[in-house]
Amino acid sequence: MLRLLVRAGDQGLSVGEIKDRSGLPASTLAHHLGFLTAGGLVEQERRGRTVISRAAYPRLEALAVFLLEECCADARPSSRARAARAALEDPTP
Fold first, then answer.
1. Which residues are paired to 14 by β-bridges?
2. Which among 12, 25, 39, 44 could bridge 54 via Cys, Cβ 3.0 to 4.6 Å?
3. How far is CA 18 from CA 3, 24, 51, 72, 89, in A?
4. Is the pTM for the entire model greater than 0.90?
5. For residue 31, what are the domain limits?
6. Residue 1 in contact with residue 15, Cβ under 8 Å?
7. Residues 7 and 43 in one domain
């Protein structure tokens, strides 16, 4: 679900669009959206009777940076972890 919202960009998706694209039952969808919204990873906006959900990009970026900085800090990092840390230190594409 989060991947769908990230891919949708700033315009986000309605709950109906998320349901159609994910194939999740409405109750499961509401459950997951509730947790993602409560955790600050998804923002929701009401437009009339429609609820638009979108990824909270600044929060997701902060989470990704934290995870990459902490990745394997207490263990010998894998080549994938070393590459992730290197990308964090040198953000040029």
1. 52
2. 12
3. 11, 8, 11, 34, 35
4. no
5. 2-55
6. no
7. yes
